[in-house]
């Protein structure tokens, strides 16, 4: 039995014990300052900042800057610790993927607990029915009363502005909730569907939510709820624990539930609790839950925003409106946030780490389940979402086209522009090996392939389309289309020398180097599946331990 | 000028080199290859008791990764060794005496200066530092690669004397017995009369970085016809006369030899990377005299593995040459930097340039294809990208370049590139992409335009996200001031904002 952490607070303790966290008692402002500190920490591979005192904050909420950012080069390490994976999984990308896929294959049904024992109900605040969005009440399905037998006071003043939502980049259009899990109804299951969507705060009870058609939950909203003139009940949660956050980053097929995959990740059932104002169930340990409805035929500005591309995309676009019905939270909640776009080039924020550590293993498993024999599928670390590297063979002519086609027409439609296929011996997380494969094995004459010319949908967050081309289409995709491509960088047996000596000698060499203090030798190696240094350098031990609060 | 042992001292002083004893049970080349694969520190291996017996006074200490060694594609990792900043050109830049944290283009320009023709000679002759003698080449204790029978030396300097002066070239080879060396030298040198049987030539190991870098630069640009006394390196590196030609006076090991034979090259011959660009030839040399410094230390590199020193020297030398050429062509110097990452083994070229006018990026990329046959892929990025951020430059090829408008492939009737495995450098064919008609002598060329479209108005240009551009200066200053109070390491703050400092 492992001892995976199940709550966000336990996760912070794991980081603290690893010397990977710093608690900042000095008051900071949500107005760019917390984000600036976080970006600087991201850029320098520093500790993860926990802002214990945030100015202008009526709830004494605390901010945590990019808590899921892993150490550079081992972006999966913090999740590996959180899920208590065996040590090789902390050092090697291929080993981590193997272990996480094993967890994903052993899903567990969640359990439902009483509201009175749910940490996320320590404080319950609902908005009075008469205060709720007028247009929403005409269409919505929100319950009229808070029906909790709550263990704490129930107030009637749920107010988004009481929380210190960070203003992240000075070019942003507003303040954002970024590291979220949006819980929505699931007509095919009882646990609801989870997905990550950022929200731009517009006032006490309204936010715009980034809903891009092509993704499952936005599709439900645009093509079912809105067409029926109904509001979609949702709950936007923050700080729901690493398994929940990781599962929200995954593309889980229709008919399955992120909650069961999250249970597999942590090897124990996710505890859910009913919402106050709708029929959804949310992770009980969440730091904060915003209950509400995505209103039909209502839009608010969203963006500009410094996005995962490393650029501020614009212009402002219209996105669906989240009307707030209730907010429940823990006492002095921790609000994790992501400084998107920071450190692009060298994956170094929560999104990039979660893409590597959650989306990648999930995609690998999904492709195998679909019958494709892939060794690993992982995002290219320089871009987070735009390019993926897939290690595989070419079992028959046209196999790579078919594989790319499958992904482009399913989960990879919006964000991914290109796949790079490499030998199955190449670790997709080894950027040197991937650059080498592109430089030496991808022939411009025969190996660069496009799926037609500008016939494919594209997420409007991109920066290579003009604002006119992006437009502000009703369902959130660009007005203009784009192209999708794949690159065949398989070597056909012509891969240059990667190592010399036999495996035993190389192991001996790495041990000697580790003893001498040479950096990096305990990290993953290029060759997939190779053993790792017996001397497991505890680099974390070299970090200074700072006095930390123990009683979260 | 930096003596090689001084160069090592600097690397130690900047916490960039680790020392270990030479293992008895593992080839130094394997140890060095694993260190390179880790992309970590340079290493120094002190003599130990190896398979060939106890060390002698002339047994060399070995150093690897001293001219490159950094895997830039992975970015800076403070978790590996906190606050050790380094780039692929850092160690060579230190060796060239530029700075502890040399700017990339300063390294390129220093390299170019070593190869420049000089109108007047300004050579310094000093006493030879290597004054101990060895009777037998095997006493040097040079390392034997795995699965090979003979010890190998690499990163050597060949000097050939003449009435006009001395000619330097890179050399490497194997020690066949106590007196005999099978060596690889540039074909352009071997083809000359000076290397007739019986000619005296000298090998120097552990030479100053300026001298070694100059040999690689001159070899890959086929400029070995001019005595080094007439080039920048001749005025930079103090020398001593030997039976062959002059060699750097601080050389750790000097071997005076006589050409015994000239042999045909074979495909099985291991090659240093400069041979991939200029061709090599095989010679048999007989040792006449061996001199070493006390406790000699020499660089060596495993051959053919990623990120090896010979590869990095070739990459930087070719980058410098191309950088100079493209900035000397149009009457203006639009190119900020040009980089052939060692990670791509010279099969990929990145160039950051001002786009002078619409279509200039096409002109630039295709000029580069004309100037070098190594690569068939060029990535053009804006000058706001720093050469220190390879990840960002590569990232721009995906996020800034439109996948259907800005990835431009030529017809497959261009000469094949030398470095890719499917091209003419693949050594005997068998690559996957023999083009239609079976003619592998032609291929296509790709350039990626990851610059902003000059037709775009300012409102179309997306601002970058970075510490410097996402926060006002007062706030950045406040964060810097409070950095240690926040619980971060003082040294790490020095690198914040580095990403945006394209001007270095």
Automatic annotation (TrEMBL), chain A:
Belongs to the UbiD family. GO terms for cellular component: cytoplasm. SUPFAM superfamilies: FMN-binding split barrel, UbiD C-terminal domain-like. The keyword Lyase applies. Keywords: Lyase. One of its GO terms (biological process) is cinnamic acid catabolic process. InterPro entries: UbiD, UbiD-like_C, UbiD-like_N, UbiD_Rift_dom. Pfam families: UbiD (PF01977), UbiD_C (PF20696), UbiD_N (PF20695). It comes from Natrialba hulunbeirensis JCM 10989. The keyword Lyase applies. Residues 144-155 have a biased composition (Low complexity). Residues 148-341 form the 3-octaprenyl-4-hydroxybenzoate carboxy-lyase-like Rift-related domain. Residues 127-155, 520-552 are annotated as: Disordered. One of its GO terms (molecular function) is carboxy-lyase activity. This is Carboxylyase-like protein. Residues 13-87 form the 3-octaprenyl-4-hydroxybenzoate carboxy-lyase-like N-terminal domain. Residues 374-489 form the 3-octaprenyl-4-hydroxybenzoate carboxy-lyase-like C-terminal domain. Residues 528-543 have a biased composition (Basic and acidic residues).
UniProtKB/TrEMBL annotation, chain B:
Residues 319-430 form the 3-octaprenyl-4-hydroxybenzoate carboxy-lyase-like C-terminal domain. Residues 418-442 are annotated as: Disordered. Gene3D superfamilies: 1.20.5.4570. Coiled coil: none annotated. Transmembrane segments: none annotated. This is 3-octaprenyl-4-hydroxybenzoate carboxy-lyase-like C-terminal domain-containing protein. The lineage of its organism: Archaea, Methanobacteriati, Methanobacteriota, Stenosarchaea group, Halobacteria.
